[in-house]
Amino acid sequence: MKPAPFRYADPGTLDEALEVLSAEGEGAKVLAGGQSLLPLLSMRLAAPAVLVDINRVPGLDTIEATGDGVRVGALVRHGALLGGGPDADAAARVQPLLARATAHVAHPAIRNRGTTVGSIAHADPSGEMTSVLALTGGSVAVATPSGTSEIPWADFFVGPLETSLPAAAVVTSAFFPALPPRAGTAFAEIARRRGDYAVCGAGVVVTLDDDRRVSAARAAYISVGLVPEVHDLTEAVAGQPADAADWSAAAALARGKVDPDADLHAGAGYRRHLVGVLTGRTLPAAAAEAVSRSAA
Amino acid sequence: MTTKLFGEPVRRREDARLITGRGRYVDDIGHTALAAAFVRSPHAHARIVDIDVDAALDVEGLVAIYTYEDLTGPLAEPLPVLIPHPQLHAPRTGYPLASGEVNHVGEPVAMVVATDRYVAEDACDRIVVTYEELPAVVGVDAARAARSAVHEEIPDNVAAVHHQETGDVEAALATAPRTLSFTQYIERSASMPLEGKGVHARWDADDGSLRVHTSTQASTSVRAAIAAKLQLSLDQVEVIAPDVGGGFGVKIVHPWPEELLVPMAAIALGREVKWTEDRREHFIGSAHERQQRQEITVGYDDDGRLVALDVHIWHDNGAYTPYGIIVPIVTATQLVGPYVIPTYRVKVESVYTNTVIVTPYRGAGRPQGCYAMERTMDRIADVLGLDRAEVRARNLIRPDQFPYDHHLTFQDGRPVIYDSGDYPGLLDKLKALVGWEDAEAMRRDAEARGTLLGVGMALYVEGTGPGPYEGGHVQVLGSGKVLVSTGLTSQGQGHETVLAQIVATELGVPIEDIEVTTGDTRRFGYAVGTFASRAAVMSGNAVALAARGVREKALRIAADVLEADPGDLEIDEGLVQVRGTPGAAVPLRTVAVLSNPLRYAFDEAARQATQFATHDDSKPPVAEDDEPGLEFRDYYSPLRSTFASGAHAAVVEIDPATFEIDVVRYAVVHDCGNVVNPMIVEGQVHGGVAQGVGGALYERMAYDADGQLQNASFMDFLMPYASEVPDVDIDHQQTPSPLNPLGIKGAGEAGVIPGTAAIASAIEDATGRRITRMPIAPSELFDLVNDESAERTAASARRAGTGTMPAGTMPAGVRTTGVRTTGVRTTGGGA
Ligand SMILES: Cc1cc2nc3c(=O)[nH]c(=O)nc-3n(C[C@H](O)[C@H](O)[C@H](O)COP(=O)(O)OP(=O)(O)OC[C@H]3O[C@@H](n4cnc5c(N)ncnc54)[C@H](O)[C@@H]3O)c2cc1C
User: Fold this and answer.
1) Average model confidence (pLDDT) across chain B
2) Which of A73, A151, B43, B221 has minimal Cβ neighbours within 10 Å of its Cβ?
């Protein structure tokens, strides 16, 4: 379990990083927290010719919360979003789902190194942040030698561990739009052991109208499907009062929409069942948050 | 500070070293050694057509490549069958490197030695092995069906048929008032020590000597194996088990191929060579345990008393049988537990599969036996509508029935005669500890919280401390230091502490003066090893006997100088003194100096001793029946095993929506005879329970039909974290063993034995569904509950709806009241 030979570059600027990446072509890999990449290297499931370590690149470690949303720099560690600092607190106010989901990512040691952006670039359908990006309607900022661009989530995820990112590119940040007014979120997941990748997870957003009736209910699931997907459950609960909506109808709708696979830890039928359970549990919690945010 | 430390919760002396990173494991030795890595079979069953190493030859840093063709002499022969048995009629073992055929994924095919492990793996990658695939036999049922064979010459895949009976079981069953029959399964798990195996070898060509460090549970036997296989004289070989980061059984197997090949390369290359097993190698290249199919028929009366038990087990032994049929024999003979079974017949067919070998993992067949017996008790109770504890109570061996002869032959070839115990005592304590009588109230309370609660119990008797022997050596130095050694190794259990406590108590010296060495053949040549809960029983008694020998000699010498009768002397705090006469004393360290008539005054101790020197010109300086030095070596060899016992109870809560299973309470009553150190015993119980919970709810070896292990990493092989292991309530009972001087029984393995049985029982109790396969995951429990044809327990019907899972999937969102915050983690804030 030792990596195959590779070269290592640790550029001090973004331009330098992009230079190395474009010179090396397909054989180069960006190294951020290493929590997904290094195990792949050690098991020789990946053998890049060169690792481009971006940890010395300045300016990528900031969390910027504005009225529009939260922009998370490429070197922001999972742990940094979990509170304790003014940036994290501001981020949690603007888009509470971010920290809620991050709390379910792995264990403290891994959260201290792994990055939110790395986790999105890695595009593992069992990761929490990919679905959070999707559910919030987010995007990633990408730098390439020819310039920068913002790629919406739906154009970014292509398949399991597969994105539309060109070879010579660095994701410099991910953007999570703010939770709209009169909306609330909730997140829940079931894992075999505490901190494991989810057997099934669910993130939901419920939006209310002025009369505190449900105007929208959307969900995204973890470890269900090959790429993150946002499911609109509004039809089951549209117009119903936030405190007395038929959430079980929404759960049933969700069960019918998903197409989970079986793996070592769970059968497809069980996963589908959990989609229903977690949807049924999270929607009322999100609605309650929406109610309290409407009151504020 | 007292020296009477036997029975005290003395803190583990090894911990400061181990938990501050100052332990010395194999990988900490030989920083400049060459590294070995292995090409292992990617196929479960295949013929090797060709091995092409050409592409590897230009890897810079490559030193050597070995394949079977390079093995000579005894090394080219199959590995030994360590423990042959007449009923093991078709033993098979592999070669150190595969010869022509591979029989499981992970079998070593070639060894590469290079300047470091990275380079060695680069070279491994470039070795091209051409295989012709053969059909793979995976799982006990496939082996039994025998549509294809693992070993061509063994078409039925049966390696051994172990069979014992205590009477005419068929006649007994025919006349039994009631009978019931059922089949159940238990899956594979593995020892999974956090430190894998590892071997470091250094050949001193000038001295003609080989020093091997290996992460083993049996260094003396590894030494003998290396000497035999490499054709060296025993005295040319030293084997040392340094700190061992867990073994749990897997490191008792020897010699592992790597333990022979690494020294072979060290000699051939004249360089230090080291191999450190990585996790994937450990999964596919070491050993597993536990898979069995169990067919059970029991005869009993209307009161639930056993009349006869007939058990037929198919035991998956993997690709080879280097460790004989120890595990199946242990299952067969320990299955009977604490119960009177008037007529018992057991047949175990041990079958080959194209999977990793099966050798003892903590419990070594006992968890399976306990699962068979205890689930039988649960079924009888269910049919008769009796309390599960009551059925057990009615069948227990009574305290006045000891020694109790089961008329069976144990793994050590000795009769299964229980030495002592109080099983009703265990059961009573357990019921009180877990609140067994309050189960219905607990159930109703859980129901009100929206969860299903179940309780289960399981009892066991564990043969511990089997022979043939273990030795101890105790030596007092002129400095006052007391050196203690035993050849038995340690894998972290706390032998340094326990053996020091015993010697401190026997010899009357402060524990701080005692240094314990284990598992170093330079210090002690004869030993068996650490397994079968035998270290305290065997080495504990051996060092006690050795300490008594030292004491006797010390008193004799001191009596001379103090002009007293040895019978009037005592040793306390390292001082030999005349009882009741203050001042009439000589330090033990001085006695040590006096014990050697050659007394160059290198140090103060020797100079001081001269004041006591006695001269008797009528005798030679060393008397005829004496020897210089204050040391003693002794061996303890038991007549037969001691039998420890215990009772466990589990309380589980199951989320009826997510099917998550939470062990909310776990109670243990434990009897290992006299306890040397209760803190260490409790630690052993805790660790065992953790592995029991792992085996019941989390761990399994997920082989696919082609024999590929799908979960060969800690990402997918789910060892429980601390967060999955319940708090354990422990109560002790002590029924001393009459068989050994210290009256102790083993405690190492017990904690793991009843876990699967007790937790299966609790889940069955909670769900009302018959549990016949363990381990069980939430996804499987979901399938079971939603399977209309799944068997319901009679108890669940009697309970008529209260606390029982209704059929069919509960609609999502229906049961959202009282959602627990553990396990199912909803919205933020709680992280
Ligand atoms: C034991 C364990 C448990 C885990 N459990 C979870 C879990 O429950 N949930 C979860 O979501 N994750 C989990 N993870 C993964 C963890 O979250 C990783 O941190 C994350 O997946 C990747 O982030 P990283 O910074 O470590 O990326 P790296 O490992 O450094 O990189 C991952 C991939 O993304 C690419 N990449 C990274 N950053 C960029 C960038 N800025 N631009 C372009 N490409 C980039 C790399 O080239 C690589 O291909 C777990 C990891 C471990 C080891």
Assistant:
1) 93
2) A151
